[in-house]
Amino acid sequence: MTALPVIAAVDGSGHSLRALDWALAAASQRGVEVLIVHVWSWPPNAHSLASTEPMAPPAGQDPVLDWVRERLAERKALPEVRYTTLSGAPAAALPDMSGHGQLLVLGSRGRGGFTSLLLGSNGRAAAARATCPVVVVPHRDRAGETDTESHGRVVLGLEPGETSTEVVEFALSEAQRSEALLQVVTTHAVPFSTLALLGNYPDPGEGEGPAIAKIAEDAQRERLRPFLQGRFKDVQVEHIVAPGDAAGRLVAASESADLVVVGKHRHRLRPPSFSLGSVANAVLLHARCPIAAVPAGSH
Description:
Layout: E1 6-10, H1 14-30, E2 34-40, H2 63-72, E3 81-87, H3 90-97, E4 103-107, H4 121-129, E5 134-137, H5 140-143, E6 153-157, H6 165-178, E7 181-188, H7 192-197, H8 208-228, E8 237-243, H9 246-253, E9 259-263, E10 265-266, E11 274-275, H10 277-286, E12 291-294
Parallel strand pairs: 1-2, 1-4, 2-3, 4-5, 6-7, 6-9, 7-8, 9-12
Antiparallel strand pairs: 5-12, 10-11
């Protein structure tokens, strides 16, 4: 099999099993294997207590991977599955591993932490530093009772002048692959005329709001035009252009979406490094459906 696998990170928690389920479905859809990874980040025996880099056992002797194997043993129609165990800190090991996969899929929380939060420190580090797209699957408390339902909708947060081609193509590919509607959300600044109603600014005159919205709508459609005239012409697109907070709009959209796609920003002074940005970070913290954080230049 030459195509890169979907990588699923597991840690023995129920959250990671939810992520594994998502990864298995994604791999089946793509016709690739799943590489199930456990990062051995604690000393396995007394002799390693003094070591800062505990040695991991072989994948065949890893109790967490054994636990996963037991849960997959009776499932049918699974894609090809491989297992591996890594040593070190998950926040470093998972981003390093991301170069060997087409997707890195994580649970939103690990074995510890506050369940009211969506993303743990390891997940945030992986989402920020991975070189392939990272999908974070929310825990059940965040996703709600209807988390297993398919809504037939993928949401893309699009800033026409900032969002990279890789992010747009990823969202369109996901919608095309699942025959889902792609809802494209672009926000623009709140007009001064609206702020004037709140008593913050003088009213500059009528027509400002529609003019700003028209500029944003034209920019969104122009950004998408070459994609929709090419290999994604069969994707149904819903254009959403609204004033206000992009993160808030995307989090609200996540309540009835199967996936929300956001982009990561490349650091100008450190080309190999990425930043989640405020919008992506807020969506990862609060969204109720799986979130894909896609870097520029991802495969």
